Amino acid sequence: MVDQHNNGKGKWKQLLAQVQKNELPRHIAVIMDGNGRWAKKRGLPRIAGHRSGMQSLKNMISFSHELGIQVITLFAFSTENWKRPRWEVDFLMRLPEEYLQKELPALIEKNTVIQAMGDLSQLPESTLAAVENAITETRHNTGMVLNFALNYGGRADILQAVRNLCREAKEGQLDCREIDEALFSRYLCSRDLPDPDLLIRPSGEFRISNFLLWQMAYTEFWFSQVLWPDFDREHLLQAILDYQNRERRFGGIKNT
Ligand code: FPP
Fold first, then answer.
1. How far does residue 107's CA lie from ligand 1's centre (Å)?
2. What confidence tens digit (pLDDT) does each residue in 160-203 have?
3. What is the Å distance from ligand 1's center to 50 Cα?
4. 121-129: which pairs have CB atoms within 8 A and are 24 or more residues apart?
5. Does 74 reside within a domain?
6. Is there a domain that residue 217 lies in?
7. What angle do CA 54, 55, 58 make, to 5 degrees?
8. Which CATH number characterizes residue 214's domain?
Protein backbone atom coordinates (compact mmCIF):
# COMPACT_ATOMS: atom_id res chain seq x y z
CA MET A 1 0.00 0.00 0.00
CA VAL A 2 2.75 2.41 0.96
CA ASP A 3 4.47 1.61 -2.38
CA GLN A 4 2.54 4.36 -4.15
CA HIS A 5 4.85 6.80 -2.32
CA ASN A 6 8.07 5.11 -3.38
CA ASN A 7 10.28 7.83 -4.79
CA GLY A 8 12.92 5.32 -5.76
CA LYS A 9 15.28 6.27 -2.96
CA GLY A 10 14.14 3.55 -0.60
CA LYS A 11 15.47 5.18 2.57
CA TRP A 12 11.95 5.75 3.83
CA LYS A 13 11.39 2.00 3.81
CA GLN A 14 14.33 1.51 6.17
CA LEU A 15 12.94 4.24 8.41
CA LEU A 16 9.44 2.77 8.27
CA ALA A 17 10.80 -0.61 9.36
CA GLN A 18 12.19 1.03 12.52
CA VAL A 19 8.92 2.74 13.52
CA GLN A 20 7.08 1.11 16.42
CA LYS A 21 3.52 0.97 15.11
CA ASN A 22 2.01 0.76 18.60
CA GLU A 23 3.89 3.86 19.82
CA LEU A 24 2.86 6.37 17.17
CA PRO A 25 2.20 9.93 18.23
CA ARG A 26 -1.57 10.16 18.47
CA HIS A 27 -1.69 13.86 17.56
CA ILE A 28 0.86 15.64 15.36
CA ALA A 29 0.82 19.44 15.08
CA VAL A 30 2.59 21.06 12.14
CA ILE A 31 3.83 24.59 11.47
CA MET A 32 4.18 24.52 7.68
CA ASP A 33 6.96 27.08 7.49
CA GLY A 34 9.46 28.01 4.79
CA ASN A 35 7.26 28.30 1.71
CA GLY A 36 8.44 31.83 0.95
CA ARG A 37 12.13 30.95 1.28
CA TRP A 38 11.63 27.83 -0.86
CA ALA A 39 10.18 30.00 -3.63
CA LYS A 40 12.83 32.72 -3.27
CA LYS A 41 15.64 30.17 -3.65
CA ARG A 42 14.14 29.22 -7.00
CA GLY A 43 13.43 32.77 -8.16
CA LEU A 44 9.69 32.10 -7.94
CA PRO A 45 6.93 34.25 -6.43
CA ARG A 46 5.98 33.47 -2.80
CA ILE A 47 2.64 32.04 -3.89
CA ALA A 48 4.50 29.30 -5.79
CA GLY A 49 5.98 28.30 -2.44
CA HIS A 50 2.56 28.13 -0.82
CA ARG A 51 1.23 26.07 -3.72
CA SER A 52 4.13 23.68 -3.39
CA GLY A 53 3.51 23.64 0.37
CA MET A 54 -0.02 22.49 -0.34
CA GLN A 55 1.38 19.53 -2.28
CA SER A 56 3.60 18.67 0.70
CA LEU A 57 0.56 18.82 2.89
CA LYS A 58 -1.34 16.42 0.62
CA ASN A 59 1.56 13.97 0.71
CA MET A 60 1.87 14.19 4.46
CA ILE A 61 -1.84 13.60 4.98
CA SER A 62 -1.84 10.64 2.64
CA PHE A 63 1.14 9.03 4.33
CA SER A 64 -0.24 9.76 7.80
CA HIS A 65 -3.44 7.97 6.83
CA GLU A 66 -1.42 4.91 5.94
CA LEU A 67 0.61 5.06 9.13
CA GLY A 68 -2.52 5.37 11.26
CA ILE A 69 -1.97 8.82 12.80
CA GLN A 70 -5.17 9.82 14.60
CA VAL A 71 -5.05 13.62 14.61
CA ILE A 72 -3.15 16.22 12.58
CA THR A 73 -3.42 19.93 13.36
CA LEU A 74 -2.06 22.25 10.69
CA PHE A 75 -1.19 25.89 11.26
CA ALA A 76 -2.63 27.19 7.99
CA PHE A 77 -3.11 30.87 8.94
CA SER A 78 -2.22 32.64 12.17
CA THR A 79 -3.83 35.70 13.74
CA GLU A 80 -0.53 37.45 12.88
CA ASN A 81 -0.58 36.47 9.19
CA TRP A 82 -3.02 39.34 8.44
CA LYS A 83 0.09 41.58 8.56
CA ARG A 84 1.22 40.15 5.21
CA PRO A 85 0.55 42.00 1.94
CA ARG A 86 -3.08 41.88 0.84
CA TRP A 87 -2.35 39.75 -2.24
CA GLU A 88 -0.64 37.09 -0.11
CA VAL A 89 -3.42 37.06 2.48
CA ASP A 90 -5.99 36.69 -0.31
CA PHE A 91 -4.02 33.81 -1.79
CA LEU A 92 -3.58 32.05 1.56
CA MET A 93 -7.30 32.40 2.21
CA ARG A 94 -8.14 30.79 -1.12
CA LEU A 95 -5.89 27.77 -0.49
CA PRO A 96 -8.13 25.89 1.98
CA GLU A 97 -11.01 26.36 -0.43
CA GLU A 98 -8.99 25.07 -3.36
CA TYR A 99 -7.61 22.20 -1.31
CA LEU A 100 -11.03 21.12 -0.06
CA GLN A 101 -12.63 21.44 -3.49
CA LYS A 102 -10.07 19.01 -4.91
CA GLU A 103 -9.48 16.72 -1.96
CA LEU A 104 -12.76 16.45 -0.06
CA PRO A 105 -14.08 13.40 -1.95
CA ALA A 106 -10.84 11.48 -1.28
CA LEU A 107 -10.82 12.59 2.35
CA ILE A 108 -14.41 11.40 2.77
CA GLU A 109 -13.47 8.12 1.11
CA LYS A 110 -10.74 7.72 3.73
CA ASN A 111 -13.21 8.36 6.57
CA THR A 112 -11.44 11.61 7.57
CA VAL A 113 -13.04 14.06 9.99
CA ILE A 114 -12.37 17.69 9.02
CA GLN A 115 -12.28 20.23 11.82
CA ALA A 116 -11.20 23.85 12.05
CA MET A 117 -10.19 26.08 14.92
CA GLY A 118 -9.58 29.79 15.27
CA ASP A 119 -11.70 32.88 14.77
CA LEU A 120 -13.44 31.66 11.63
CA SER A 121 -15.80 34.67 11.61
CA GLN A 122 -13.04 36.79 10.02
CA LEU A 123 -12.53 34.44 7.05
CA PRO A 124 -13.80 35.43 3.59
CA GLU A 125 -17.29 34.07 2.93
CA SER A 126 -16.24 31.51 0.34
CA THR A 127 -13.40 30.16 2.53
CA LEU A 128 -15.75 29.82 5.46
CA ALA A 129 -18.39 28.13 3.30
CA ALA A 130 -15.85 25.58 2.00
CA VAL A 131 -14.58 24.82 5.50
CA GLU A 132 -18.07 24.58 7.01
CA ASN A 133 -19.19 22.31 4.20
CA ALA A 134 -16.20 20.00 4.77
CA ILE A 135 -16.91 19.90 8.51
CA THR A 136 -20.57 19.05 7.89
CA GLU A 137 -19.81 16.45 5.22
CA THR A 138 -17.33 14.61 7.44
CA ARG A 139 -18.92 15.01 10.87
CA HIS A 140 -20.08 11.39 11.07
CA ASN A 141 -16.76 9.94 9.94
CA THR A 142 -14.64 8.05 12.43
CA GLY A 143 -11.12 8.10 10.99
CA MET A 144 -8.22 10.52 11.17
CA VAL A 145 -9.04 14.06 12.36
CA LEU A 146 -7.63 16.77 10.12
CA ASN A 147 -7.78 19.98 12.09
CA PHE A 148 -7.05 23.28 10.31
CA ALA A 149 -5.91 26.19 12.45
CA LEU A 150 -7.25 29.19 10.54
CA ASN A 151 -6.95 32.70 11.92
CA TYR A 152 -5.68 30.95 15.02
CA GLY A 153 -3.48 32.31 17.80
CA GLY A 154 -2.67 30.53 21.06
CA ARG A 155 -3.08 33.65 23.20
CA ALA A 156 -6.36 34.58 21.52
CA ASP A 157 -7.52 31.01 22.13
CA ILE A 158 -6.76 31.24 25.85
CA LEU A 159 -8.45 34.65 26.07
CA GLN A 160 -11.67 33.48 24.41
CA ALA A 161 -11.77 30.54 26.84
CA VAL A 162 -11.34 32.89 29.82
CA ARG A 163 -14.04 35.24 28.53
CA ASN A 164 -16.51 32.39 28.06
CA LEU A 165 -15.75 31.01 31.52
CA CYS A 166 -16.25 34.48 33.05
CA ARG A 167 -19.54 34.93 31.22
CA GLU A 168 -20.85 31.56 32.37
CA ALA A 169 -19.73 32.24 35.93
CA LYS A 170 -21.45 35.64 35.87
CA GLU A 171 -24.64 34.07 34.55
CA GLY A 172 -24.49 31.53 37.37
CA GLN A 173 -23.96 28.53 35.06
CA LEU A 174 -20.51 27.79 36.44
CA ASP A 175 -18.87 27.76 39.85
CA CYS A 176 -15.30 29.09 39.48
CA ARG A 177 -14.08 26.47 41.95
CA GLU A 178 -14.95 23.80 39.36
CA ILE A 179 -12.38 25.17 36.89
CA ASP A 180 -9.57 22.67 36.56
CA GLU A 181 -7.22 21.86 33.66
CA ALA A 182 -9.60 19.38 32.06
CA LEU A 183 -12.52 21.81 32.14
CA PHE A 184 -10.39 24.72 30.89
CA SER A 185 -9.15 22.57 27.98
CA ARG A 186 -12.72 22.04 26.83
CA TYR A 187 -13.18 25.81 26.45
CA LEU A 188 -10.22 26.06 24.08
CA CYS A 189 -10.76 25.83 20.31
CA SER A 190 -9.20 22.36 20.31
CA ARG A 191 -12.01 21.21 22.65
CA ASP A 192 -11.99 17.41 22.92
CA LEU A 193 -8.87 16.74 20.86
CA PRO A 194 -5.98 15.18 22.76
CA ASP A 195 -2.98 17.48 23.28
CA PRO A 196 -0.37 17.17 20.51
CA ASP A 197 2.29 14.54 21.20
CA LEU A 198 4.61 15.87 18.53
CA LEU A 199 5.14 19.32 16.99
CA ILE A 200 6.89 19.43 13.64
CA ARG A 201 8.41 22.78 12.66
CA PRO A 202 10.57 22.85 9.56
CA SER A 203 12.55 25.76 8.05
CA GLY A 204 15.19 26.21 10.75
CA GLU A 205 13.08 28.34 13.10
CA PHE A 206 13.13 27.36 16.77
CA ARG A 207 9.93 28.85 18.13
CA ILE A 208 6.26 27.98 18.43
CA SER A 209 4.90 31.26 17.08
CA ASN A 210 1.78 31.49 19.23
CA PHE A 211 0.54 28.02 18.24
CA LEU A 212 -1.37 25.84 20.75
CA LEU A 213 0.31 27.44 23.78
CA TRP A 214 -1.72 25.67 26.46
CA GLN A 215 -2.03 22.39 24.55
CA MET A 216 1.72 21.97 23.94
CA ALA A 217 2.76 21.95 27.60
CA TYR A 218 4.23 18.42 27.23
CA THR A 219 4.53 18.12 23.46
CA GLU A 220 7.81 16.85 22.00
CA PHE A 221 9.27 19.35 19.51
CA TRP A 222 10.93 18.34 16.25
CA PHE A 223 12.76 21.11 14.41
CA SER A 224 14.47 20.75 11.05
CA GLN A 225 16.21 22.91 8.47
CA VAL A 226 14.08 21.45 5.67
CA LEU A 227 11.68 23.94 4.09
CA TRP A 228 8.05 22.83 4.18
CA PRO A 229 7.67 22.30 0.40
CA ASP A 230 10.60 19.84 0.61
CA PHE A 231 9.16 18.00 3.61
CA ASP A 232 8.48 14.41 2.58
CA ARG A 233 7.70 11.05 4.14
CA GLU A 234 11.35 10.54 5.12
CA HIS A 235 11.17 13.66 7.27
CA LEU A 236 7.88 12.55 8.77
CA LEU A 237 9.27 9.13 9.60
CA GLN A 238 12.44 10.69 11.02
CA ALA A 239 10.34 12.98 13.23
CA ILE A 240 8.32 10.00 14.45
CA LEU A 241 11.45 7.96 15.12
CA ASP A 242 13.05 10.83 17.05
CA TYR A 243 9.82 11.17 19.01
CA GLN A 244 9.87 7.45 19.80
CA ASN A 245 13.42 7.77 21.09
CA ARG A 246 12.50 10.50 23.54
CA GLU A 247 11.59 9.68 27.08
CA ARG A 248 8.32 11.38 28.01
CA ARG A 249 8.16 11.83 31.76
CA PHE A 250 5.44 14.50 32.08
CA GLY A 251 7.27 15.95 35.06
CA GLY A 252 7.72 12.56 36.74
CA ILE A 253 10.85 10.45 36.96
CA LYS A 254 12.21 7.64 34.84
CA ASN A 255 10.59 4.23 35.38
CA THR A 256 13.17 1.80 36.64
C1 FPP B 1 4.53 29.89 6.37
O2 FPP B 1 5.56 29.98 5.41
C3 FPP B 1 3.37 29.34 5.75
C4 FPP B 1 2.12 29.88 5.80
C5 FPP B 1 1.78 31.10 6.51
C6 FPP B 1 1.03 29.26 5.09
C7 FPP B 1 1.05 27.76 5.11
C8 FPP B 1 0.09 27.25 4.13
C9 FPP B 1 0.32 26.19 3.33
C10 FPP B 1 1.50 25.34 3.34
C11 FPP B 1 -0.71 25.75 2.40
C12 FPP B 1 -1.81 25.27 3.24
C13 FPP B 1 -2.85 24.71 2.53
C14 FPP B 1 -4.06 24.52 3.06
C15 FPP B 1 -4.95 23.63 2.37
C16 FPP B 1 -4.52 25.15 4.29
P17 FPP B 1 6.16 31.42 5.10
O18 FPP B 1 5.34 32.05 4.04
O19 FPP B 1 6.20 32.22 6.37
O20 FPP B 1 7.59 31.08 4.61
P21 FPP B 1 8.88 31.98 4.82
O22 FPP B 1 9.09 32.07 6.31
O23 FPP B 1 9.95 31.19 4.14
O24 FPP B 1 8.61 33.30 4.19
1. 21
2. 999 999 999 999 999 999 999 999 999 999 998 999 999 999 99
3. 5
4. 122/151, 123/93, 123/150, 123/151, 124/93, 126/97, 127/93, 127/94, 127/96, 127/97
5. yes
6. yes
7. 90
8. 3.40.1180.10
